């Protein structure tokens, strides 16, 4: 009797192991079927070969509220919807579960890391162009990209992973740090051009009023000034004669 008891325990252990393995297999299969697309990859898309019709011209002018548009452009918002319910594999710990949505405070910390590296002042790593006024996306891993570039990368790569650090299951948020940098650069260029114009006009007036110290230039300065005075006097005389 003592020899048969361990055999029952071993059979119970083997049965529990087989049931747990079966449960894990079912959970993984369920997770894969939910995460993978069930569309036929070899199915060709239908191309619309119909000719485009001419659209009617509208004479009405749209009234744009600039203040509301500016407020909307400056507002930051999250692109990702609420995460779907966890699958059985994620509940059992077989697959990494997506994290909870970041709070505003956590997003501020993520943006702070990106600003400390000055990512928004550098070109987008995908297209190698400045952010400008295009929509800029901040990921939960603190990397920034153009929204169109990131969506194109996700589409052609077939997975959702950061192009910089390859982190998966990231969250996205629209920010406007690149637009701020672009506006500051434009304002600096406009101010420098205006200051240059003012200085050139001031120097031009200075050359017309203050004689130079060089003898040749001084002689030419007085010659030009005399010619200008004679021309002004001649113009005044002709105007007086015409009036009489």
TrEMBL record:
UniProt-listed InterPro entries: IQ_motif_EF-hand-BS (IPR000048), RNF32 (IPR042862), Znf_RING (IPR001841), Znf_RING/FYVE/PHD (IPR013083)
Entry keyword Zinc: yes
Top-rank taxon, per record: Eukaryota
GO molecular function: zinc ion binding
SMART domains listed in its UniProt record: IQ, RING
Residue span(s) of domain RING-type: 124-166
CDD domains noted in UniProt: IQCD, RING-H2_RNF32_rpt1
Transmembrane annotation, as ranges: none
UniProt KW keywords: Metal-binding, Zinc, Zinc-finger
Gene3D superfamilies per UniProt: 1.20.5.190, Zinc/RING finger domain, C3HC4 (zinc finger)
Matching SUPFAM superfamilies: RING/U-box
Region of interest: Disordered: 1-22, 37-82
Biased composition range(s): Basic and acidic residues: 64-79
Biased composition (Low complexity): 10-20
Pfam families listed in its UniProt record: IQ, zf-RING_2
Cited PANTHER family: RING FINGER PROTEIN 32
Protein name per the record: RING-type domain-containing protein
């Amino acid at each position: 009797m003592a020899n048969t008891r361990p055999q029952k325990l071993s059979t119970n252990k083997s049965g529990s192991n087989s049931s747990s393995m079966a449960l894990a297999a079912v959970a993984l299969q369920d997770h894969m079927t939910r995460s993978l697309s069930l569309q036929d990859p070899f199915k060709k898309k239908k191309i619309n070969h119909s000719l485009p019709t001419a659209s009617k011209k509208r004479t009405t002018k749209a009234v744009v509220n600039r203040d509301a548009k500016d407020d909307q452009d400056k507002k930051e918002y999250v692109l990702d919807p609420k995460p779907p319910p966890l699958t059985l594999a994620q509940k059992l710990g077989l697959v990494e579960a997506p994290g909870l949505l970041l709070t505003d405070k956590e997003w501020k910390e993520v943006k702070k890391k990106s600003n400390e590296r000055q990512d928004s002042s550098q070109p987008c790593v995908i297209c190698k162009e400045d952010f400008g006024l295009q929509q800029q996306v901040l990921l939960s891993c603190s990397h920034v990209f153009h929204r169109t570039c990131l969506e194109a990368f996700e589409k052609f790569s077939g997975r959702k992973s950061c192009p910089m650090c390859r982190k998966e299951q990231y969250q996205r948020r629209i920010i406007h740090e690149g637009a701020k940098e672009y506006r500051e650069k434009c304002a600096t260029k406009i101010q420098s051009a205006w200051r240059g114009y003012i200085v050139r006009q001031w120097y031009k007036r200075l050359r017309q009023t203050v004689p130079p110290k060089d003898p040749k230039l001084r002689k030419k300065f007085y010659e030009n000034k005399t010619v200008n005075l004679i021309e002004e006097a001649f113009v005044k005389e002709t105007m007086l004669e015409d009036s009489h």
